Amino acid sequence: MNSEHQLSDRCEQALNFERHINRIVIGQQAAVRNLVIAVFARGHVLLEGQVGVGKTTLLRTVAQGLGGRYQRIEGTIDLMPSDLVYYTYLDQDGRPRVDPGPLLKQGEELAVFFFNEINRARPQVHSLLLRVMAERAVGAFNREYRMPHMLVFADRNRVEREETFELPAAARDRFLMEINIAAPGDDAVLDQLMFDPRFHDVDALIGAMPESAIGYQNLNALAESIQQRVQAAPALHKYALELWRATAEPQAYGISVSDVDIGQLLQSGASPRGMSYLVRAAKVRAWLEGRDNLWPEDLQAVYAPTMSHRLFLNPIYAYRREVLLPELVNQILQRIAAP
């Protein structure tokens, strides 16, 4: 796996994997590229988007392509941490039974775990999920169950605010990326989605996704090889450091946002873990572009999806988050000079 030839072969397989996804989930090339980067960086993903834009279809397609198992759970206000681990029922003889829940059902073959409407679940559920995301393991039935190949994907209900629990900073920081999936704006794409029968049968559509030659069991080793192979020059180290510092003290870099006191905008900037995730994602992007050295463009391409959900605004500006954060991120990228 460590040889340049093998990594090159794997890169072509990864690009082929991406091409097949784009044939099934059309009009989402930017989101698909970021999701592919997350898969090969072995990072969890928080999905943003309205209802019916294809988030579940996208994740099922990824799971189908990787060849691993897929599990999904719906966030509800009465969901308990134990519901992720096991469920109880009465069998046909009226006897109580306990069976593995969605986290344990597929064992070590679990590749994609989708938590739909995660902000409907209580903080106790978030706490268990955080541990699973960090350790890829959970304790149950007096033993430890490991899920070494699992990636967690979650989305939030953005419409209804009642009976929801917003993710705390620590929870959001565990996600490598926050990827926005919007409805396609291209009329030709919308026409296909509405009138082409191929897109009306989701199960058949996903079934057309071929299994990648890479295999989900090989992703951890491949990810580490990518991180070791792709190198960054000292100037790139300094550039990444400046990008990080600008998230904590934007006023020190002459950054301004319209109608905002920039010194009062942020409660906190990105964490050091967030910056390590930025570099990890940027290296995967460089690898997908066929390079073994990091360019400023790689950091810039993944900066918004890896940084935006790690920047926390003061309450007086929080209600304008969807407008202010993209402007702030763009200002940082424009103001910090690339080498």
From TrEMBL:
Specify one Pfam family: AAA_3
Q: Where do the AAA+ ATPase domain residues begin and end? A: 41-185
* SMART domains, per database record: AAA
The record's InterPro entries line, in alphabetical order, gives: AAA+_ATPase, ATPase_AAA-3, CbbQ/NirQ/NorQ/GpvN, ChlI/MoxR_AAA_lid, ClpA/B, P-loop_NTPase
Please name the CDD domains in this protein's record.
AAA
UniProt xrefs under Gene3D superfamilies: Magnesium chelatase subunit I, C-Terminal domain, P-loop containing nucleotide triphosphate hydrolases
Q: Which SUPFAM superfamilies match?
A: P-loop containing nucleoside triphosphate hydrolases
Gene Ontology molecular functions: ATP binding; ATP hydrolysis activity
Recorded protein name is AAA family ATPase
Annotated source species: Methylomonas koyamae
